[in-house]
Structures are given as structure tokens and as C-alpha cells.
TrEMBL record:
Its EC number is 2.6.1.-. Keywords: Aminotransferase, Coiled coil, Transferase. Residues 6-329 form the Aminotransferase class I/classII large domain. This is Aminotransferase. The keyword Ribonucleoprotein does not apply. It comes from the Bacteria. It comes from Micromonospora ureilytica. PANTHER family: AMINO ACID AMINOTRANSFERASE (PTHR42832), L-GLUTAMINE--4-(METHYLSULFANYL)-2-OXOBUTANOATE AMINOTRANSFERASE (PTHR42832:SF3).
Length: 330
């Protein structure tokens, strides 16, 4: 269903343990070591320059997704745009703020004067595994800048490109070399198997990040000190991330072949942690058909009203379970 199952890498567990004597309050902004590690990783993984980049650790990325509209002062009468088929928390966060949610992948469909304050993009996407090309992201950023709206790009699956190369909103090809109005949201949950630690961060427009820091300090949204130390170890080590990526790559191949042979059509899924599948029938029929074989998947309708004929299959199961799925589909 999507929760990581492989071990937390030893190098990260050791860093957590070594930092466990932490009687004082941690820094909301992150330790200097963590801020430097985030900036260095963003520069490597997102192709972003470090000059003028705002960075801030978050308690996993879900809390930031859920509270970003509120933290930015978005409220009733404002519009938050979310992808038509999306991780549900974008909508939940807009609703927590009392804002109006519009689901669309095409900003031109919005009409002339909606009060759009925030546009969410998610590439590679959950649940579809779709990768948005640089030109598409660039159009979104230009559109939002013209209207003074913020673009929040949820990039938690960026390191998991398979048949397409995902690109960050912070890359100069998309941002035009300026971070104005853009925020990239990242997570170590999947890259480093740290879902249980709650370790994420946001990077981008320094003025927006400063505003988030100010509010989060007062709201007590602080990453625990041992987790901050663990994040430094995770960000500075690419080896474990590459090993984990290879595990997912192998599982993806097995599942892709097994579901295709069983008559499923795989759509998008060019990156990320999921296969987006359809049998051209109502998703609950597919969920039921698979459940009878002891295979649990997520119904497409969880992610949007236009996804009623799809199911989402996660790559986050042990090799043994993945092999069992393939055997049951054969
Ligand atoms: C698209 C997307 N964003 C954010 C998250 C939240 O991840 P976390 O809070 O573990 O960083 C998830 C988790 O599955 C996700 O799929």
C-alpha cells in the first residue's frame, strides 16, 4: 500500500543513536550541519544553485503539505489548485485553511480571475507515476508568477526515475534561475526508508521559507534533534539511496511483468513508487478481484473522481511478498 518495509540504513541509525542525548530545544531552522546538508543535496539532486536558496526541515513532508496553505496565510475566498488525480493531502490542507480547491492539470481552464494563491504540482506523481516535462513546469511557474501565486512542487519521488528523468522546479530550466514564488517539498521517507523518523524539508524562495520559519517557530513545528542528526547522515550518503532504488527497480520489473501478463494496462508509471493500472472496469471490481487473490491495492477513486477505473500498486513490499504477488497472478 505504500509504507517502506526495508531496514533503516545502519549509517542513519548510528547518527540517530549518537545524537540521542538531546535535553535542549532543537532549532526549528535546523542545525547549521543540517541546513548545509539540505542545500548540498538540493544542489546535487535538483540541479539548483545554492546562492539565495531558502531551506527548512519539516516533520516529514505530509505535515507541510497539510499546513502549507495555513502557514502562508491562505484562507476563505482564496483558491488552491491541486492536480486532477492527486495525493489527498493537497486538498485536505486547502480545506484546513478554509480555501477553495480546484482540481485541474491545465491552468488555462481556470478562467480569468480566480483568486489563486497556491498551485500544487507533483512530479513524479502519486498515484500515477507521471513525470511532468520541464516545459510544462515552466509554464506553471510563469503563470503563477504573473499572478503572484506560489508554486509548491511536491518532489518526494524525484530520486525514483525509471523510464523518464524527473526534473525539479528548482532546476534553472524550470525556475529560470530565480527561486521567486517556488517551493520544492522533499522527503526522506522513501529515499532513505525514514517514514518512521518523520524527516522532510522544503527548499526554494528565501522570503517564503523565512515566513514559514517564523510561523513554525511559534507553532512548535520542530524536527527533533536526533532526527536532524539522522537526516544529515542520510543526505550525505548516496550509497544506501542507490541500493534502495535498485530494490525498487527490481520489484517494479517483477510486478510490471506480472500485472501485464494478467491483462492489466500500465499507464504512466514512468517514475516513482507505484504502478498505475487499469482493467477498464470500475476500480472496486479490480480491488475485489485482487483481494480474492490476497493482493491489496489502493482504489483509484481515493485520488480523484476521474480515477474510478484505476488502481495503485505500491512497490513497497518485501521481495518475498512481491514474488508471491507474481505467483498469484500467474
Ligand atoms: C506525493 C506525496 N507527498 C508527500 C507524502 C508524505 O510523505 P512523508 O510525510 O512521509 O514525507 C507522500 C507519502 O506517501 C506522498 O505520496
Amino acid at each position: 500500500m505504500g509504507t517502506p518495509v526495508d531496514p533503516v540504513p545502519e549509517v542513519i541509525r548510528r547518527a540517530l543513536a549518537d545524537a540521542s542525548d538531546a535535553p535542549g530545544y532543537p532549532l526549528t531552522a535546523g542545525t547549521p550541519a543540517l541546513r548545509a546538508a539540505i542545500a548540498a543535496w538540493v544542489s546535487r539532486a535538483c540541479g539548483a544553485g545554492v546562492d539565495g536558496l531558502g531551506v527548512l526541515p519539516t516533520i516529514g513532508s505530509k505535515e507541510l503539505v497539510a499546513w502549507l496553505p495555513t502557514l502562508l496565510g491562505i484562507g476563505p475566498g482564496d483558491v488552491v489548485v491541486v492536480p486532477s488525480i492527486a495525493y489527498p493531502t493537497y486538498e485536505d490542507g486547502a480545506r484546513l485553511a478554509g480555501a477553495t480547491v480546484v482540481r485541474t492539470d491545465s491552468l488555462t481552464s481556470l478562467g480569468p480571475t480566480p483568486r489563486v494563491r497556491l498551485v500544487w504540482v507533483n512530479s513524479p506523481g502519486n498515484p500515477t507515476g507521471r513525470v511532468l516535462p520541464a516545459a510544462h513546469l515552466r509554464k506553471v511557474v510563469d503563470w503563477a508568477r504573473e499572478r503572484g501565486a506560489v508554486v509548491a512542487s511536491d518532489e518526494c519521488y524525484l530520486p525514483l526515475g525509471w523510464s523518464a528523468e524527473p526534473i525539479s522546479v528548482l532546476s534553472p530550466q524550470v525556475s529560470g534561475g530565480s527561486y521567486a514564488g517556488v517551493l520544492a517539498v522533499h522527503s526522506l521517507s522513501k529515499r532513505s526508508n525514514l517514514a518512521g523518523y518523520r524527516a522532510g524539508f522544503v527548499a526554494g524562495d528565501p522570503a517564503l521559507v523565512a515566513e514559514l520559519l517564523k510561523v513554525r517557530k511559534h507553532a512548535g513545528m520542530i524536527v527533533p534533534a536526533p532526527v536532524q542528526a539522522a537526516m544529515v547522515a542520510a543526505l550525505e550518503d548516496e550509497r544506501h539511496a542507490e541500493e534502495q532504488r535498485e530494490r525498487y527497480r527490481a520489484r517494479r520489473e517483477v510486478l510490471r511483468a506480472a500485472f501485464t501478463a494478467a491483462g492489466f494496462t500500465v499507464e504512466h508509471s514512468e517514475a516513482g513508487l507505484y504502478l498505475w493500472l487499469t482493467r477498464g472496469e470500475d476500480c472496486w471490481q479490480t480491488v475485489d478481484w485482487l483481494a480474492r487473490r490476497g493482493i491489496l491495492v489502493a482504489a483509484g477513486v481515493f485520488y480523484g473522481p476521474t480515477a474510478g477505473q484505476h488502481v495503485r500498486v505500491a512497490l513497497t513490499e518485501s521481495d518475498e511478498h512481491i514474488a508471491a504477488v507474481a505467483a498469484r497472478l500467474a
